[in-house]
Amino acid sequence: LKEIFLKDYKQPDYFFDTVDLKFTLSEEKTIVFSKIVVYPRLEGCSAPLVLDGIDLKLISLKVNGDELKVDDFHHDARHLTLSAPPSGKFTLETVTEISPQTNTSLEGLYKSSGNFCTQCEAQGFRKITFFQDRPDIMAKYTCRIEADKSLYPVLLSNGNLIEQGEIEGGKHFAVWEDPFVKPCYLFALVAGKLESRDDTFITRSGRKVLLRIWTPVEDLPKTAHAMYSLKAAMKWDEDVFGLEYDLDLFNIVAVSDFNMGAMENKSLNIFNSEVVLASPETATDADYATILGVIGHEYFHNWTGNRVTCRDWFQLSLKEGLTVFRDQEFSSDMGSRTVKRIADVTGVRTYQFPEDMGPMAHPVRPHSYIKMDNFYTGKCRISPSCIGHDIGAEVVRMYKTLLGAPGFRKGMDLYFKRHDGQAVTCEDFYSAMRDANDADFFNFLLWYSQAGTPCLKVVTAYDAQAKSYSLKFSQVVPPTPGQPVKEPMFIPVAVGLVGPNGKDIPLSSVYHDGKLETITKDGQPVNTTVLRVTKKEEEFVFSDIRECPVPSILRGYSAPIRLDSDLTDADLYFLLANDSDEFNRWEAGQVLARKLMLSLVSDFQKNEKLVLNPQFLLGVKSILCDSSLDKEFVAKAITLPGEGEIMDIMEIADPDAVHAVRTFIRKQLATELRDEFLNTVKNNRSSEQYEFNHTNMARRALKNIALAYLGSLEDEEITELALHEYKTATNMTDQFASLAALDQNPGKTRDEVLADFYDKWQHDFLVVNKWLSLQASSNIPGNIENVRKLLNHPAFDIRNPNKVYSLIGGFCGSRVNLHAKDGSGYKFMGEMVLQLDKLNPQVASSMVTVFSRWKRYDETRQNLAKAQLEMIMAENGLSENVFEIVSKSLA
Ligand code: HT7
Ligand code: ZN
Fold it and tell me: How far is CA 478 from CA 353, 453, 456, 763, in A?
């Protein structure tokens, strides 16, 4: 198995000018005809032409119209090599046979619910035809599709439809032409029985764009929100970045078998139906929000990814980091900025930080890979609802933090001016940002090359006599595989000083590096300033601070780091109550909760009685009862950090202790604040009509978190209440929340309500996936048996990634059952990984990551997990995907 290195990147010897494809689709096999105009990069080039190709049967190979003799080429399992291609421009024609019907990997051309569809990113095009499957080969494509008309009435590819018609034998054809150059990973084809919801969007320059969302006919009513999201995204990109759509047609197709969330193929986005279909009765508020974000994300790729693409896969963050940042901003502008920021930062902490601590730790731009698919990181690896590359997005966000919105926009404009139609690198983006603003970014590029989460320590001091306030920073970047020693990073730290009256102290100068720097804006003092922390140790002193403030550090989470400050609990409670930066208000509560949980974990491990700190209880109560606060913010602020987050900051992760402590705190809060939670439920019930807007969603979020707390009490009155909420719910958000509240306690009611839910929704596979996931993630001891039973339930199908993510991925959500001391959880996951790897290596490798941090646990668990890793490693014919993760985990 070959490891590919960034340092080995070489420009290709040959480029492709045009690519004409013809697909004849049929029930047994598909024939792909390809005609490529090839030209050498340098005149007189005599290098061999190496084409990628996997699982392809070569039928014919012609150069300049002549069939090649066997001696003139070499064909093995991965490549087709022309040893001596003609000099200058030439045509290369291949005919290959492929078998989409038997393709369970869901990359290349495959079938989903009877329809043909493709997934080519990262390296799936080589499963369709012989090609230089790399993103720096950009060409213009045409695509002719021929298929049975009754089975596949709709034939789609990229660009514009230029011809269509009938062919004998009940067949028909369509020819698509894409006027823009693109890399092959953006190629797409769909053929099937689909209907579309149509709408139009008039761009700001007056272009009328036809928008079509394709699904099986019965799902069409569920595409209204996706269409709303698409139009909102198109408008937002024009308003915020001046970016207009560039064709007259934009297609979205929803398929039910898809490894990730969606794919941004030029003008033919293909989506996992989970992130397209929604109705109030079947989708939750979270689903609605995800759809908005993912539709936006894929649409935004049209400029950041498609018009300007990546030179090679190491530059993935160039398009993903930037596009995730853009979709985050879009969602913020459409809803609550603070709540979105909290959700995104929680994502970074839940998915990115753990990865940074494990064997798969890698910089934003990795130095090497075995299988590129493994570098699509973040939540996307276990669920279609997120696109990943969260840290890449944080890096892009830091440019904006440093430059301000107008400076960032100038940088974006220059980036497109310089690179439209090109395949470029992260440095090109960096240079555009720097040059457009004449900015000094010091060693900012380290964010791309150095792995690990920087830890920034802050020591604070107030000098009452000098009326100055000092922040002393020291940073450490922990060692990661292959990078034992690290350089200090350039960390933008947004800081405000909150005075004793709870108001921000206006700041006008800071002493740093022997100089007094002015930090006013348009001549006026500021409430927040961004400090440029660049050294291992460094001090900033604010002058003219007349009263001792409490510092609000890393406002808005201005850099993706771990902050370790010397703030006391009193300081944190003060910030929780007063900080004008809402993100840091939430963060203060989280730091307090983390400290409390860690200290209770230690009590639990010493077998001491657990007692809830009354001040924490009061803090939660005051937030819960503060009617001036945004309700969704309150819901977030009273949510405890996840079990994984606490385990990550322990020397030896102890899932049992963390689970016991989190459960204890939830129950204590529910007991002590029972009346407040009951009132919250009663006062925030939904009106009849479901609306996707912030006010309504916030009300539901608050009501449902209150219900979740109450549900932790094993108590008849609460069970009655939750059952009432379940029965009277008029939308899935409320119905599922009450089901989840009831799911916490084993027994007859739980069993009955779960059965009732399935009965009601068995016809709707997306709702059934929620049902699978809820049960699988249950912390009820020994739940593994139920999960094993569900493997044989008619609702489960191991070939469908969404079902695997729901059931098997869902099981990993229960830390206690996954890490059960008898090894039953690990054994189950080991078996599943091997089964999955034979069918779908991408899905298998996303599941095997549960083992990657096995060294973080106690010895018993280490041995059990290691045994599973070794068992997987010993398997014959392991995929590159799983091999890479398992071998790095065992190293
Ligand atoms: N750019 C898309 C990535 C993607 C993907 C990557 C590897 C294997 C399968 C995949 N499906 C989609 C998704 C995105 O950025 O939204
Ligand atoms: Zn993306």
Answer: 12, 7, 11, 50
Ligand 1 within 6 A of 447 CB?
no
Q: What value does the mean pLDDT of the chain take?
A: 97
**Residue 115 host element (H or E):** strand 115-119
Q: How far is the CA of 231 from the centre of ligand 1 (A)?
A: 22
Does the C-beta of 837 come closer than 6 Å to ligand 1? no
> Which residue in 93, 264, 298, 394 is the catalytic one?
298
Q: Answer yes or no: is the C-beta of 654 below 6 A from any ligand 1 atom.
A: no
Q: What is the reported pTM?
A: 0.98
Task: Judge contact between 353 and 453, C-beta under 8 A.
Answer: yes
CA distance 742 to 885: 37
The span from the CA of 124 to the CA of 54, in Å, is: 9
Whether 298 sits among the annotated catalytic residues: the reply is yes
User: Among 130-139, 381-390, 441-450, 456-465, whose mean pLDDT is lowest?
Assistant: 381-390
- Inter-residue contact 22 to 32 (CB < 8 Å): yes
Percent of the chain scoring above 90 in pLDDT: 97
Which ligand 1 atom is the nearest neighbour of the CA of 260?
Answer: 11
Q: Please provide residue 32's backbone torsions phi and psi, each rounded to the nearest 5 degrees.
A: -115, 120
Ligand 1 contact via 257 beta carbon (within 6 Å) = no
Span 662-712, pLDDT tens digits:
999 999 999 999 999 999 999 999 877 899 999 999 999 999 999 999 999
Burial class (CB in 10 A: 0-12, 13-18, 19+), 651: exposed
Q: Whose CA is nearest to atom 11 of ligand 1?
A: 260
What residues are paired with 252 via a beta bridge?
A: 213, 269
Mutate to test the pocket of ligand 1, among 303, 376, 386, 879 (most ligand atoms within 8 A of CB): 376
Side chain identity, residue 192: G
What kind and span of H or E run contains 701?
Answer: helix 694-711
User: How far, in Å, is the centroid of ligand 1 from the Cα of 253?
Assistant: 15
ipTM of the complex: 0.98
User: Can you list the domains of the chain with their CATH numbers?
Assistant: 4-279 (2.60.40.1730), 325-449 (1.10.390.10), 455-560 (2.60.40.1840)
DSSP codes of every residue in 535-576? SSEEEEEE----S--EEEESTT--SSSEEEE---HHHHHHHH
How many angstroms separate the CA atoms of 255 and 650, rounded? 41
Which atom in ligand 1 lies closest to the alpha carbon of residue 294? 16
Which SS3 state, helix, strand or coil, does residue 483 take? Answer: strand
Tell me the backbone φ, ψ of residue 332, rounded to 5 degrees. Answer: -60, -45
Return the pLDDT at 379.
Answer: 42
Distance CA 371, CA 53 (A): 16
Confirm or reject: Cβ of 125 under 6 Å from ligand 1. no
Nearest CA to ligand 1 atom 12: 263
Q: Does 274 sit in the ligand 1 pocket, CB within 6 Å?
A: no
